Description:
Blueprint lengths: L5 E10 L19 E4 L3 E10 L5 E3 L1 E7 L5 E2 L7 E3 L10 E2 L10 E3 L1 E4 L8 E3 L2 E11 L9 E8 L2 E2 L2 E2 L3 E6 L2 H30 L2
Parallel strand pairs: 1-15, 2-16, 9-12, 10-12
Antiparallel strand pairs: 1-3, 3-12, 4-11, 5-6, 5-13, 7-12, 8-10, 13-14, 13-16
Amino acid sequence: MGMASATQQAFRIRDGQSAPYNCASNWAAALNVRATIVAGDDFAVRISVEETAGGGFNLNSHLFYSRNGGTWTEVDDVSSVVREVDNTGTADDYLLTSECLGSHALTFVSGRFSDDGAATSTISINNHWTESEHHMELIEADVDDGDVIEFRVYDGTSALASYSRNASIEVSKSSTTLVNKDMQAKWDIRELIYKDFQAKWDITTL
């Protein structure tokens, strides 16, 4: 009975590697609005789930993605297209005590944060709603400019009963972005050459 009542409701996309996981930081777009994410960058998706039948539901939040309307695929720490990666500012399975995704008639239950590619610990909802957040990297080699990546929370590997909306991002691989990354790579190479030259100079002056 609990499974039949679990529904994904709202979402919001967060930008950045070490953003604090509160309601005020680093949002990439408004509530329930698709965000543009640069290929190769880190981002996070926060999603709300509700249970309304009173049957009780134990959610182990795990993220799945679909690229351009394709198959729903598990997001883990080695998946292609997107994968969960370590967040330097927040521990995996961190308790999310703030309601970030709008007001709700139901009582809020604290959710969980994930960055290790595995399902979160259990979140028990019974005529409640909750939020989970998943921190990921958009894999540059696996995506094209303009790709749309959608996200759904699963209970482990089982889909919820219904989805009011999917979370989503659009991929940016603009020429400006690629040029900037190429310039940074060249700068890094020059810096390594300089450090090598400096080391050799230091040796000759001993």
